[in-house]
Amino acid sequence: MKYAMLFALALWASYSNAQVYSCKTPDGKTTFQAQPCESGQIQTEQKSAPKGASLNPPGCDHPLLGHWRLTHISEVLDKDLIASDSQKWTFSPDGMVENDGFIKQDFPYTCSGSEVVFKSAMENKLEIVRSTATSMVWHSIDFTGYLYVER
């Protein structure tokens, strides 16, 4: 089962250092986002969002935006963790997730409360079990396992 779960994770796939970009538009408006600024905007890279800025996508109860990397997996929450660094995800505010694992691809996602749905060739669902600004535990509903991720 452990190897099947690793293989399933290969179908999905956050870069290790969290990055938040402060982007200033020509009209003076400042936004904070997980992706680099668009052409014509002034960009500064920051390690964390300023007070009051949210890394929660619309409808999501957790700070999902930005880069995440898989550190461990397990079949039972907080037991028998297996180290893994094969998967990376970057969630953007436009509803796209970049998968940088065994297969590099981009696909849409949605987040509602604590549920994240990846809309790739196979729709995959995750439940965010717990989160901080720098780590999360995801329960894979489709593959019956837990994914431990960090920024």
UniProtKB/TrEMBL annotation:
Pfam families annotated for this entry? DUF4124 (PF13511)
> Signal peptide span per the entry?
1-18
Task: Say which domain of life the source belongs to.
Answer: Bacteria
Q: Which UniProt keywords apply?
A: Signal
The residues covered by the DUF4124 domain are: 8-56
Q: What is this protein called?
A: DUF4124 domain-containing protein
Organism per entry: Pseudomonas turukhanskensis
